[in-house]
Every structure is written in structure tokens, then in C-alpha cells.
Amino acid sequence: MSSDEFTFHAEKANPMNYDVINVVNSIPNATQLRTFQISGESYGIEIKKE
């Protein structure tokens, strides 16, 4: 069964830009910050049949 609609909401993000990675790596004890928790509906995509 297909609904022809899709919604995706991101919860985590891994930086791919080397400037961002270098800044994060320069923060002491920041190894846990390499994956950023993002929440809210601003980070997502909706695909609808219309």
C-alpha cells in the first residue's frame, strides 16, 4: 500500500564542512559534539503527491 507521501525529520547531523569540523575539534573534550543533536521541524522534508 502506497500513500504517495513522505515526511522526514532529522534528529542528528554530522558536519561535513572542514571549517566546522576544525572548530569542533578545537574545543576541549568535544568528541561527543561531532554529531549534533538537532530537533524541531525546521530540519526536514515533506514530499506530497500534490
List keywords for this structure.
two-stranded antiparallel sheet, alpha+beta, single chain, about 50 residues, elongated
Descriptive account of the structure:
The relative contact order is 0.36. The longest helix is centred in the middle third of the chain and has 9 residues, at 18-26. This protein has one helix spanning 18-26; strands at 6-9, 12-13, 36-37, 44-47. A two-stranded antiparallel sheet has the order 1-4. Strands 2-3 form a two-stranded antiparallel sheet. It has 50 residues and is an alpha+beta fold.
- Strand proportion, as a percent range, falls in 15-25%
Residue-averaged pLDDT: 80
Main β sheet profile: 2 strands, antiparallel
Number of strands: 4
- Please mark out the parts with pLDDT under 50 across 5 or more consecutive residues, or reply none: none
Q: How far apart lie the N and C ends?
A: 18 Å
Structural class given helices, strands, pairing? alpha+beta
Considering DSSP H and I runs of 4 or more, what fraction of the residues is helical? 10-25%
